Sequence to fold (232 residues):
Amino acid sequence: MRIHVLQHVSYEGPGMIEGWAGQNNCPLQTTRLYEVGVALPDSDDFDCLVVMGGPMGARDEGEYGWMVDEKRLIKEAIEEGKKVLGICLGSQLVASVLGAHVRRNQHEEIGWAPIWLTDEGHGAEVLGHMQSEMPVLHWHRDTFDIPSGAKHLIESAGCRNQAFMYEDRVLGLQFHMEMTRASLRALIDNSGELEEGPFVQSGVKMLAREENAFRRANHAMRGLLLRLANVH
Fold:
């Protein structure tokens, strides 16, 4: 499976997905949209499109001109039967392309918090390896409505719509299971001061989380990637 990553900012890359790709003989290339003059790939150049997170919103085409072409590529990938994985902002962009509304969530959600599978999530093959409830990293203000025809897979106390699956090959995840401690530190270092709240933790508190939490989240992502790779 040939993977192409769309990266929106220098400090929010694919995390452990890159290592997984190398271990599973999946060639991975990255388009860094924040670099001047960068060209998007042709949809024939990949089998799976991974759309990463970033501080911008899914409706910010006026400020980020490349987002128009990015959405066009996501649309082409979906229409051509490719596998698509959107993470955080990436999930919101995918939802938007599928016609769903992207809006400000009731709560800003930043830090470690549990997610749990919905009834549809329990029946989804791509999540067959995951526990019913587990802590993951969150970092978002916006959320998406579930696209028409998609399954609502995961929710949390701070955000009801955490994941969706469309046609068993297009997956949107509002949260981060790809992050390592190093990639989380990079995100914190490049973000403003966080004021703690009901669903917001400080950078110090997030980084103090035991290593097992990162391992569990990364293990869940590896299982998800393996199942997504085998979807036909």
DSSP finds seven helices and nine strands in the chain. The chain has a mean pLDDT of 96. The beta strands are 3-7, 28-32, 48-51, 83-87, 102-117, 133-144, 151-156, 163-166, 170-173. The helical segments are 16-23, 66-79, 89-97, 119-122, 181-189, 203-207, 211-229.
